[in-house]
Design goal:
Order of helices and strands: HHHHHHH
Radius of gyration: 22 Å
Number of domains: 2
Number of helices: 7
Number of strands: 0
Distance between the termini: 12 Å
Largest sheet: none
Length: about 120
Protein backbone atom coordinates (compact mmCIF):
# COMPACT_ATOMS: atom_id res chain seq x y z
CA UNK A 1 0.00 0.00 0.00
CA UNK A 2 2.82 2.41 0.86
CA UNK A 3 4.43 1.80 -2.52
CA UNK A 4 1.24 3.04 -4.21
CA UNK A 5 1.32 6.24 -2.13
CA UNK A 6 4.98 6.86 -2.88
CA UNK A 7 5.12 5.73 -6.51
CA UNK A 8 4.70 8.99 -8.40
CA UNK A 9 5.11 11.75 -5.83
CA UNK A 10 7.85 10.65 -3.44
CA UNK A 11 9.40 14.10 -2.96
CA UNK A 12 6.09 15.76 -2.13
CA UNK A 13 5.15 13.03 0.34
CA UNK A 14 8.58 13.10 1.98
CA UNK A 15 8.43 16.89 2.42
CA UNK A 16 4.89 16.78 3.82
CA UNK A 17 5.66 13.99 6.29
CA UNK A 18 8.76 15.83 7.51
CA UNK A 19 6.95 19.17 7.83
CA UNK A 20 3.76 17.87 9.43
CA UNK A 21 4.93 14.96 11.60
CA UNK A 22 8.73 15.21 11.67
CA UNK A 23 8.91 11.78 10.04
CA UNK A 24 11.77 11.09 7.66
CA UNK A 25 10.38 8.99 4.80
CA UNK A 26 13.84 7.65 3.88
CA UNK A 27 14.41 6.44 7.43
CA UNK A 28 10.91 5.01 7.55
CA UNK A 29 11.57 3.05 4.37
CA UNK A 30 14.80 1.71 5.89
CA UNK A 31 12.74 0.07 8.63
CA UNK A 32 12.53 2.77 11.31
CA UNK A 33 8.73 2.73 10.98
CA UNK A 34 6.33 0.16 9.61
CA UNK A 35 4.77 0.81 6.21
CA UNK A 36 1.34 0.77 7.83
CA UNK A 37 2.23 3.60 10.21
CA UNK A 38 3.65 5.73 7.39
CA UNK A 39 0.55 5.06 5.27
CA UNK A 40 -1.67 6.04 8.22
CA UNK A 41 0.22 9.32 8.57
CA UNK A 42 0.08 9.95 4.82
CA UNK A 43 -3.68 9.61 4.51
CA UNK A 44 -4.15 12.04 7.42
CA UNK A 45 -2.10 14.83 5.84
CA UNK A 46 -3.92 18.18 5.57
CA UNK A 47 -5.99 18.74 2.44
CA UNK A 48 -3.75 21.49 1.03
CA UNK A 49 -0.47 19.59 1.36
CA UNK A 50 2.00 19.16 -1.52
CA UNK A 51 1.29 15.46 -1.96
CA UNK A 52 -2.50 15.83 -2.28
CA UNK A 53 -2.09 18.86 -4.54
CA UNK A 54 0.25 16.89 -6.82
CA UNK A 55 -2.39 14.18 -7.16
CA UNK A 56 -5.39 16.53 -7.46
CA UNK A 57 -4.74 20.25 -8.14
CA UNK A 58 -8.16 21.15 -6.72
CA UNK A 59 -7.00 19.96 -3.30
CA UNK A 60 -5.06 23.24 -3.00
CA UNK A 61 -8.39 25.05 -2.56
CA UNK A 62 -8.95 24.44 1.14
CA UNK A 63 -11.89 25.98 2.98
CA UNK A 64 -10.05 29.12 4.05
CA UNK A 65 -8.63 29.68 0.56
CA UNK A 66 -12.08 29.28 -0.99
CA UNK A 67 -13.55 31.80 1.44
CA UNK A 68 -10.76 34.28 0.74
CA UNK A 69 -11.18 33.87 -3.04
CA UNK A 70 -14.93 34.42 -2.71
CA UNK A 71 -14.32 37.55 -0.64
CA UNK A 72 -11.88 38.92 -3.24
CA UNK A 73 -14.35 38.12 -6.03
CA UNK A 74 -17.19 39.85 -4.19
CA UNK A 75 -15.13 42.98 -3.51
CA UNK A 76 -13.89 43.12 -7.10
CA UNK A 77 -17.44 42.78 -8.40
CA UNK A 78 -18.70 45.40 -5.97
CA UNK A 79 -16.05 47.95 -6.87
CA UNK A 80 -16.63 47.28 -10.58
CA UNK A 81 -20.40 47.60 -10.18
CA UNK A 82 -20.19 50.84 -8.22
CA UNK A 83 -17.82 52.43 -10.70
CA UNK A 84 -18.84 54.85 -13.40
CA UNK A 85 -20.23 52.75 -16.30
CA UNK A 86 -18.55 55.03 -18.82
CA UNK A 87 -15.09 54.73 -17.25
CA UNK A 88 -14.96 51.15 -15.95
CA UNK A 89 -13.26 48.41 -17.90
CA UNK A 90 -14.41 44.86 -18.47
CA UNK A 91 -16.01 42.87 -15.67
CA UNK A 92 -13.30 41.30 -13.47
CA UNK A 93 -12.68 37.59 -13.88
CA UNK A 94 -13.21 35.55 -10.71
CA UNK A 95 -10.29 33.74 -9.10
CA UNK A 96 -10.51 30.24 -7.75
CA UNK A 97 -12.79 27.45 -8.79
CA UNK A 98 -16.07 28.99 -9.85
CA UNK A 99 -17.99 25.75 -10.21
CA UNK A 100 -17.57 22.14 -9.27
CA UNK A 101 -16.59 19.82 -12.06
CA UNK A 102 -18.86 16.85 -12.56
CA UNK A 103 -17.40 13.40 -12.88
CA UNK A 104 -18.72 11.42 -15.80
CA UNK A 105 -20.79 8.44 -14.74
CA UNK A 106 -19.67 5.10 -16.04
CA UNK A 107 -22.25 2.45 -16.78
CA UNK A 108 -21.71 -1.07 -15.53
CA UNK A 109 -23.71 -4.09 -16.57
CA UNK A 110 -25.48 -6.15 -13.94
CA UNK A 111 -23.08 -9.03 -14.63
CA UNK A 112 -19.99 -6.81 -14.09
CA UNK A 113 -21.47 -5.30 -10.94
CA UNK A 114 -22.18 -8.71 -9.42
CA UNK A 115 -18.67 -9.88 -10.36
CA UNK A 116 -17.16 -6.79 -8.71
CA UNK A 117 -19.22 -7.23 -5.56
CA UNK A 118 -18.34 -10.92 -5.29
CA UNK A 119 -14.57 -10.29 -5.31
CA UNK A 120 -12.75 -11.26 -2.16
CA UNK A 121 -11.87 -8.26 0.03
CA UNK A 122 -8.88 -7.97 2.35
CA UNK A 123 -8.62 -5.68 5.34
Amino acid sequence: MLSLLVADHFDELAADLMETYGTDLWAAMDGERSPESVAALAVQLPSGCRWRTAIDPDAWWTGDRLLMANLVNLLAGLSWGLGDPKKRGPKPKPIGPTRRRKEAATAMSKKKLLAELSKRRFG
